[in-house]
Structure formats: C-alpha cells, structure tokens
Design a protein that fits this description.
Shape: globular
Radius of gyration: 19 Å
Distance between the termini: 20 Å
Number of strands: 9
Low-confidence stretches: none
C-alpha cells in the first residue's frame, strides 16, 4: 500500500484539484492523509468533505501552526503504507503516477525512491514551464549518488514515492535551511533513485513566485515563517555552514564502511564552496551545474518497465 501525506496550510484555492487528481489514480491501494496546519481558510471544510466521501481519506488538524517542516513529518508519522509520498495541496498528478512509480519500486528492492519527470506550471495550470531537474542513479555507486544530490539543487526529491522503511532510517525533515535537500542527501546514502521518463507530475506556482522578483532577504524571512514560525531563524549569517554541518552529521550516522564514510565526507566541502562561497564566479557555478545536468540526464538503460 502507498500512503499519501498531504500537508496543507491555507490551500483551499487549489485543494480540490489536487485531491481529485490523487483520488483518480489508476493504482487504488492507497491511503490519503491530510495534515492541516491550522488553516484559516476553507481548507478544513474541503478536507472534511473529501474524508466523508472516500474511506481512503483521513483528516487531521493541528491545534496550532507547527510550521511546514513538522507538518510534513507528522503526515509521515500518521502513515502505515509500505511506500510513502508527500503531496502538495496545490499540485497535479497524472492518473498513472502512482502505478508507474510502484511498478519500478516493486521491480528492485534496492531502489529507495521513484519519481516521474516533473514540470512547473502556472497558477492557472495553463502554462508549462521548464522541467524540474531530476536524475536516475540506478547502476551508479555510492559516491556518484551522493555527489549528484550534493551538486544538484532539486527540491523535487521530497515528492517522490519513497520506501517507508528507508524514510524511517533518516531524520526526516529537520529545522535547517533546505530540509528537503538534506533529506534527499540522506536517502542517497541508502540506495539508488529511479526515474520514470514521462511527465506525470506538475508543480504549481501557487504563491506566484514567478510573477515577481522577490527580495532575497525577504524570501528567507518568508521561508523561515513557513518552515518553523514559532522557532528561531535558521537563515542568519551562518545558515550555509549549518546546512553543511547537517550533511556531515548525515554521513556520520549512515551505516557506511569506514572508507566510504571518509570518501563521502570529503565530497561535502567542495560542493559547499562552489555553491556558497561568494568569490566563486557565477559562470563557473553555471558550468558545473550544466555539466552535471547533461551527465545526470542520461536515461537509465537497465530495462525500464512498461
């Protein structure tokens, strides 16, 4: 069974479309858990309506806003399935998304998570933007897997169909800048990622970020409020070092032979300096990312299931 965790906060505008696309999946063996972070709009009413209509849907409401990070974690803790996926209350999935991903996961127990190609789309769903950066690491060793996640900034990893047993070996999402990226790195140490080469997932620009150029400082203030509204900021002067420290902690707690642990640890610092050190030319960053994108986008040739 697949557990779908839908952490929501004031998502009434797009929630019906998101839930309809999830309930229309041709793979029907799933539970859908809505974890409401004390929404103040019609999210509660819509969620209760769907829970009353379909026995696969359950609704849980937090008394207060726990922040996005803890609300995501709570959705997983409420789950019971062999596989788990987080789903935004504003995105859209093709009817075959679950079945294609589960088919791949069932074909090889070593695969930690599977997703499809994903595309960004406008608020009204009429305009499709670029494809989200993704990669398939089947057939690649630990160092390659770890480096692809270290060097590829892609938040889409958290929206894959993931083995619940693998998620339980991680710290889930923790209070640090980029918790989804850190989780992706932890998962890469456990096994390969798989990619279904079809666009079956559409990520909506639900906050309208593409329609304006946000001030960088304000962006981090807003992000902090979403992740952990009651806590201290994690986006101060040293937030990049804090993120890198958590990557090192992830390597330390992973069940790796000593040699592999040292090798992966040595990969963390180069990635930090290229992405975060201010004196690195932006042209060099683009060159590195472009090269990795071209290399990582090579299709998996190990016999994709149809």
């Amino acid at each position: 069974m697949v557990s779908i965790g839908v952490p929501v906060y004031n998502d009434a505008k797009f929630l019906r479309e998101a839930l309809d696309s999830l309930l229309a999946q041709d793979y029907s063996n799933f539970e859908l858990i809505i974890s409401d972070n004390a929404s103040q709009d019609a999210t509660q009413e819509i969620s209760r309506e769907y829970a009353a209509r379909d026995p696969r849907v359950s609704y849980h409401r937090n008394a207060t806003n726990l922040g996005a990070t803890e609300n995501f974690n709570q959705a997983f803790r409420l789950s019971t399935g062999k596989y788990f996926m987080w789903a935004g209350g504003h995105d859209v999935w093709a009817p075959t998304y679950l079945s294609r991903c589960v088919q791949v996961l069932e074909s090889d127990e070593a695969i930690v998570q599977c997703n499809s190609l994903a595309q960004n789309m406008s608020q009204d769903g009429k305009t499709i933007f670029e494809t989200v950066r993704q990669f398939d690491t089947r057939g690649k060793g630990l160092l390659v897997r770890a480096n692809l996640v270290l060097w590829q900034v892609s938040a889409f990893i958290a929206y894959s169909v993931i083995r619940s047993a693998a998620l339980r070996q991680t710290r889930l999402l923790i209070q640090v800048g980029g918790p989804d990226l850190l989780l992706g790195f932890e998962l890469s140490l456990l096994g390969p990622f798989a990619l279904v080469p079809e666009a079956l997932f559409f990520m909506r620009d639900h906050r309208g970020d593409r329609s304006r150029q946000p001030n960088r400082a304000q962006y981090f203030v807003d992000l902090q409020k979403r992740l952990n509204p009651a806590g201290s900021t994690y986006f101060g002067r040293f937030w990049r070092w804090a993120f890198t420290l958590e990557e090192l902690r992830a390597v330390r707690r992973a069940r790796l032979p000593f040699g592999q642990r040292i090798a992966v640890t040595s990969c963390v610092f180069p990635a930090y300096f290229v992405w975060f050190y201010p004196r690195v030319p932006e042209a060099f960053r683009r060159l590195v990312r472009g090269s990795l994108n071209r290399w990582a986008s090579q299709p998996h040739t190990g016999g994709e299931l149809k």
